[in-house]
Amino acid sequence: MQRRGLTLASPAKINLFLRVMNRRPDGYHNLCSLFQAIDLVDILHFSLSDSNLFTINSDVIPADHNNLVVKAVETFRAATGLRTPVNIHLDKRIPVQAGLGGGSSNAATTLWALNELHGRPATIQQLMRWGGKIGSDVAFFLSEGTAYCTGRGEIITPMSPLAPQSFWILKPKEGLSTPEVYKKLAIDLLPDRNPKASLKAWVGGKRVLYNDLEQAAFAVMPMLAALKTKLFSYGFTDIIMSGSGSALACFGDGDLPLIPGVDLFPVKFTNRAADGWYA
Ligand code: C5P
Predict the structure, then answer these.
(1) 47 CB under 6 A from ligand 1?
(2) Looking at the predicted structure, is the pLDDT value of residue 2 above 90?
C-alpha cells in the first residue's frame, strides 16, 4: 500500500577536503571533494493532500519558488508527470549561508519523499540526475552519506562509511554568499594538492583536511580567519571551513568556551542504509 505521509530528517554535510581544479566556460568550477553527511538535520513533513501547501518555521527563508524544496517538487513533477498535490512543512535547524548544504539537502529529501509517496517510480540514479539540475550539491545527499564528488560536485563516486568521528560545527551569525566567495578565488595561487591521495588517506583512517575556498572566504569575511586562529589557541588541532563557509568544522580535544556571535553544534558523521533514508 502506498503511504500518504512521511516525516524525514534532512542532514547537513561537510567537505572533508575540497580542491578546486579549474574554472569552466559556464562559470562554474570543477571540484574534487570528499563530502560527508552529518547528524545536524532539518525535519521535513510530507503528506499527499487535496491542495498544495509549503510552510517553513523561519522568518528569513521565504517559502517561494526560489526555495529548493519547491524546485524539487517542480522537477519531480516535470520528470514523472505525477502531480498529486502535496503539503510540505520544513522545520529549519541547519544554519543558512554556512556551506553546510542545507537547501540542497532539503531538495534531495523532497525528491526522495515524493518518489516514496508515489510508490518508487524512479531509481536513485534518476533522482540524482534530476537533483544535479537543481543545484551542484543535491545529488550528494541522495548518496548514502559519504561520497567523492567531482564536476560541479554533482558527479558522485559513493564511498563506504568512514570511521566515526564526533566534532563541533561553529557558525558565526554572519553568513557567506557562495558566488561571492568563488569570485574572490585566486585559482593560480592554490597549492597543488592531489585529491586522489587525500581520498586514499581517509580510506586508510587518516584525517586530511583542506579547503581551497578558505582563503577566498577569509578575504570576504576576515573575522572567520581570526576565529580559526582562536580555535587553534584553545587546543584544537584540525579546523576546516565547510564548502564556501561560513561554518567551521573543529576536530580534536580542545576546550571550547562559548564565543559571542558564534553558534555551536556538537555533530558526528551519519550515513543512511541502502534502502532507507537518514535517521
Ligand atoms: O549549483 P549551485 O546553485 O549550488 O551554485 C551556486 C553558485 O556557486 C554558482 O552560481 C557558482 O557561482 C558557484 N559554484 C561554482 N562552482 C561549483 C559550484 C558552485 O562556481 N562547482
Answers:
(1) no
(2) no
**176 Cα to the center of ligand 1, angstroms:** 13
The preferred substitution site among 18, 152, 176, 213 for testing ligand 1, maximizing ligand atoms within 8 Å of CB, is: 152
Measure CA of the first residue to CA of the last residue in the chain; give whole Å.
22
- Residue 13 catalytic? yes
pTM of the model: 0.97
Which residue from 86, 93, 87 is spatially nearest to 61, judged by alpha carbons? Answer: 93
Mean pLDDT of 72-84: 98
pLDDT in tens, 39-62: 999 999 999 999 999 999 998 899
Going by CA atoms, what residue is nearest to atom 12 of ligand 1? 179
Does the beta carbon of 134 lie inside 6 Å of ligand 1?
no
Q: Mean of the pLDDT values across residues 245-273?
A: 95
d(CA 179, CA 220): 11
pLDDT at 1 over 60: no
Pocket test for ligand 1, best of 23, 31, 71, 136 (most atoms within 8 A of CB): 136
Q: Does residue 136 line the site of ligand 1, with CB under 6 A?
A: yes
On whether the CB atoms of residues 128 and 89 are closer than 8 A, the answer is: no
Q: How far apart are CA 126 and CA 78, in angstroms?
A: 13
Please name the residue that has the C-alpha cell 585529491. 195
